[in-house]
Amino acid sequence: MSGIVFENVSKYYGEITAVKGLSLSVQEGERLILLGPSGCGKTTTLRMVAGLEKITSGILKMGGHIMNMVEPGARNIAMVFQNYALYPHMTVWENITFGLSIRKVPNGEIKARAEKALEILNLSGYEQRKPHELSGGQKQRVALGRSLVKQAPYFLLDEPLSNLDAQLRLQARTELVKIHELYRPTLMYVTHDQIEAMSVGQRIAVMNQGILQQLDTPDIIYQYPANTFVASFIGAPPMNLLQGRLCDGNLRIAGCDIKPPAEWRNLLASHSELWVGIRPEHCRLSDNSLLRGRVEFTELLGSQRCVHVRLQGDELVLCVFPA
Amino acid sequence: MKISGIRGWHWHVVLCGAVLIQLWPLLFMLSTSFKTMDEIFQSTLNPIPAVPVMNNYLYVLKNFPLVQYIFNTLFIAGIIAASKIITSILAAFAFVYYEFSHKEKLFNALLLTFFIPITVVMLPNYLLLSRLGVLNTPWGVILPQLADAMGIFLIRQAMRAIPRPLIEAGKLENAGAWVMLTRIILPLIKPSVIAMGIVFFINSWNDYFWPLLVLQDKSRYTLPLALQMFISAEGGSEWGTAMAVAVLTSLPPLLLYLSCQRFIIHTFMQSGVKG
Fold it and tell me: So where are chain B's domains?
């Protein structure tokens, strides 16, 4: 029983709303990603779980217990900070074992846990180094190690990979999932990188302006976004959103009348104007297309090429996969 | 900032002049201590002794209870510096990491004490110490100087510069106030603490006025007071000996400052206060 439950949780800084009416539950052993743009309230949400921010209203439960007034140190949480928060005056070994020594864990146990963490994280041999003698990736692993040795049921990560280069980030992402599979703590992970969210998360909570927009699996969020914000935020390049209008039973998009599919009939019956979302990879260039436009420029993104097409009053981005 | 060009050349001349004005008394003290009494009066302003002599130093070491005065000064300056550092650290810790009502007002009130001249607090302090019966003892010098607003301000600035996640990581590890202070904060602000300690020590070492009021017994004098014994208001001062004592008195704080200069400069730069 080590799930996390938010019941209508809000956080205000004076007049500013950081998080508004958040209700969600993280299952025991689950990897939940808090995803959203900067300032959307995801880090505040994580910090409320850690006890580093006071909850203005609502209830936060961890393991079935109300935690609103519980001190951070009593929550049994391991947290990795964005800039790792390694103590510069301590060695790698001291950084990793600091928490355990405070909690008066027996020396033998400390040694065993630290050695195992160092081995898992490929840090053996670096025990006596100070943080300034480590690379970004190594620092990130030390921060992870410090959390691992705690063997806490809750694991919070605040953009832990944001300071790493692209290649290292990819590697760290995989390691992170492997480590989670090993211990299976309840994991909350804050990121603004949707690729990271999709690859690490079992479920994703998309937030914007302090409000939860959608909570679901990466696949559902990608295929069935709950609103235009989620639709445009998830996916690279993002989903094309074209304004449509119902005219004589046809859907008018970018000046072209398209006969809508039968399954849209109910939806169209209640809305005369709507947004039509089309993923770039679901479009293709064709001479026979009803939508007519002019190719403005193209970008090569490795395996695919993005084509920017200017339609009447709109822009459409589509992905083509060169043979 | 780099000074260059013709304007820079002018600045260098001005700065060299300022340095010379600052250094001149020290140079004068040093050269006089190596001169004979005759030479002191014959070529007073010549900074280089014709034939350097050690007589003044030998006289001081032979006839003057220098060790006793050094011990007196060391005892007083050491305790004052240590207590000011401890109180500054504890007060700054409270001001930075604890929330309590009227915190800002209290801190501002503390800063106001910078502007209270010693002459204002001299009389009440003297009366208080008199009632406590500690006049003419080292404790009479020490007691009114156990805390220092400048120290609290500077240590607070240093603590505020510690990145917040480091403190929060400690909180998540359930580190109490003592562990937080001794194992996280103090190692991180060590240069500032050392610098403040040195500044406090040097100030106490050189302190003249308050010990003069409190200490009457010559055997309890600090070095600056003892130095005064060689200077007679009616003339006939033993300048050579006085300057030898002055050199010996200045040496410990000077060496301390030179060895830890970078900490002191770093601390004042970090606080935004020009020293």
Answer: 1-53, 54-271
> What is the distance between the alpha carbons of residues B171 and B176, in angstroms, rounded to a whole number?
8
Which alpha helices (H) appear in chain A, and where do they start and end? 42-50, 92-102, 107-120, 136-148, 166-183, 194-200, 218-223, 228-233, 265-270
The structural domain count of chain A equals 2
Calculate the CA A1 to chain-centre distance: 24
User: Which residues of chain A does B184 touch, with a Cβ-Cβ cutoff of 8 Å?
Assistant: 87
Distances (CA, A) of A188 to A152, A282, B171: 13, 32, 19
Are A199 and A256 contained in the same domain? no
ipTM of the complex: 0.85
Look-up: residue for tokens 């990979």?
A: A161
CB B165 to CB A98 under 8 A? no
3-state class (DSSP) for residue A117: helix
Euclidean distance between CA atoms B73 and B50, whole angstroms: 34
Q: In terms of residue numbers, what domain contains A22?
A: 4-228
Q: Is the same domain home to A217 and A242?
A: no
For an interface test with B, the pick among A46, A52, A54, A149 (most B C-beta atoms closer than 10 Å) comes out as A52
What is the three-class DSSP state of A71? Answer: coil
Query: What gap in Å lies between CA B238 and CA B231, rounded to an integer?
Result: 7
Residues A263 and A163 in one domain: no
Kindly state the DSSP code that residue B218 receives in the 8-state scheme. Answer: G
Nearest-CA neighbor of A202 among A23, A5, A7, A30?
A: A30
Both tokens of A141, joined, read 């692993």
Q: How does pLDDT run along chain A (323 residues), one tens digit per residue?
A: 679 999 999 999 999 999 999 999 999 999 999 999 999 999 999 999 999 999 999 999 999 999 999 999 999 999 999 999 999 999 999 999 999 999 999 999 999 999 999 998 888 999 999 999 999 889 999 999 999 999 999 999 999 988 888 888 888 888 889 989 988 999 999 999 998 999 999 999 999 999 999 999 999 999 999 999 999 999 888 899 988 888 877 888 888 888 888 887 777 778 778 888 999 999 888 888 888 888 999 998 888 899 999 988 788 999 988 76
For the CA atoms of B20, B26, B27, B28, the dihedral, rounded to the nearest 10 degrees, stands at: 110
Preceding peptide of B187 cis, ω within 30°:
no
Does residue A246 share a domain with residue A148?
Answer: no
Q: What is the DSSP string of A278-296?
A: E-GGG----TT-SS--EEE
- CATH superfamily of the domain spanning B54-271: MetI-like (1.10.3720.10)
Same-domain status, A261 and A224: no
From chain B, the residues in CB contact with A72 under 8 A are 168, 171-172, 174
CA distance A89 to chain B (A): 7
CA distances for A79 relative to A72, A87, A140, B44, angstroms: 11, 14, 12, 71
Residues A286 and A209 in one domain: no
Chain B nearest CA to A245, separation (Å): 51
Please indicate, yes or no, whether residues A198 and A267 belong to a single structural domain of this protein: no
| A102 with B173: Cβ contact below 8 A | yes
